[in-house]
Design a protein that fits this description.
The protein is α+β, with helices and mostly antiparallel strands. It contains 4 helices and 13 strands. The strands form 2 sheets. Strands 7-8-9-13-12-11-10 form a 7-stranded antiparallel β-sheet. Strands 1, 2, 3, 4, 5 and 6 form a 6-stranded mixed β-sheet that branches. The longest helix is centred in the N-terminal third of the chain and has 17 residues. The termini are far apart.
């Protein structure tokens, strides 16, 4: 398929699924073995993606998406998008608020034989208005806490300033009254090539996810470290699938059950003119131990 044909597939899929709300047409655009490695790697393939799209449409029944820019090279298409609508149904476990919301994001897809085969890299959606319940709990929105985390990240991670035109982000995600995650970081997408990301999150008890386990059958940890204050760090390093780029992930679980997660990764195909992950495994651990913002 040509790059123009691949771009047309993305345009048509956005129109059908997010504007016409025809999630049932997803199989026309997505491969049966579709994989999301970027925004929601825990999803169960295309069926999981359909469930996620349906839940957003149910929560925002007038949802409309706009493609801001499409850039394609080879079998990959980068999409900058915005979406908006009214929060009239349950959304991410939160009751309807009647508020208008606006989201934006940036994703990189790989296509194969006329189908979207993989979301290889992406950023979590940014929101310009509150989505939370009337009590003020919010999801996917910039808050004072997330802005404070971004300030701390910029102070602790000078490597961000060495990136070429990085995009900074910060937002807070609340899933119910007891689970909250505050996120900040930076990323850089190289159109037609790949993406590098530095991602930091502080999470309330039970809202974090380990990058690896010490148990048989899970992703093996590169190492597990225990500290005098009772914290435990789970560290994993690996080569990003189908690339020569590296990823370094750590989750520091504190004695009170809260967690700090730091990752540095590069989706860097062989021969791509772009840097590798900007932080080493020891650096992501050092940063995790120095973060002071709480969820």
């Amino acid at each position: 398929m040509s790059t123009e044909e691949n771009k047309a597939i993305l345009r048509d899929s956005f129109e059908a699924i997010f504007n016409q709300h025809r999630v049932d047409r997803a199989d026309e655009f997505y491969g049966a073995n579709y994989l999301d490695r970027g925004t929601a790697p825990e999803q169960a393939g295309l069926d999981g993606a359909k469930q996620t799209w349906s839940s957003y449409i149910a929560g925002v029944p007038d949802l409309r998406a706009t493609i801001v820019e499409l850039i394609a090279e080879g079998d990959k298409v980068a999409v900058a998008w915005t979406a908006e609508g009214t929060h009239r149904g349950e959304l991410l476990g939160l009751p309807p608020t009647g508020r208008h919301i606006r989201l934006s994001g940036l994703v990189l897809y790989r296509l194969d034989a006329g189908r979207i085969a993989e979301l290889v890299a992406g950023t979590a959606p940014m929101s310009s208005s509150r989505v939370g319940d009337p009590a003020g709990k919010s999801t996917n929105t910039s808050t004072e806490r997330s802005k404070a985390l971004l300030d701390e990240v910029r102070r602790l991670v000078p490597e961000i300033d060495q990136l070429d035109r990085p995009r900074l982000f910060n937002f807070e995600f609340a899933h119910g009254p007891d689970q909250r995650q505050v996120t900040a970081g930076a990323d850089r997408i190289y159109p037609g090539a790949g993406q590098i990301t530095v991602h930091i999150a502080v999470s309330s008890r039970g809202a974090w996810r380990l990058p690896c386990t010490g148990r048989t059958g899970g992703e093996p940890c590169t190492r597990i470290e225990e500290f005098a204050d009772g914290s435990t760090a789970y560290l994993r390093t690996y080569t990003v699938p189908d690339t020569v780029g590296h990823a370094y992930d750590v989750t520091l679980v504190k004695p009170d059950g809260t967690g700090v997660s730091v990752s540095s990764a590069a989706y860097r195909p062989e021969g791509a003119e772009m840097p590798d992950a900007p932080l080493s495994l020891d650096r992501v651990l050092e940063i995790a131990r120095r973060i002071t913002v709480t969820p």
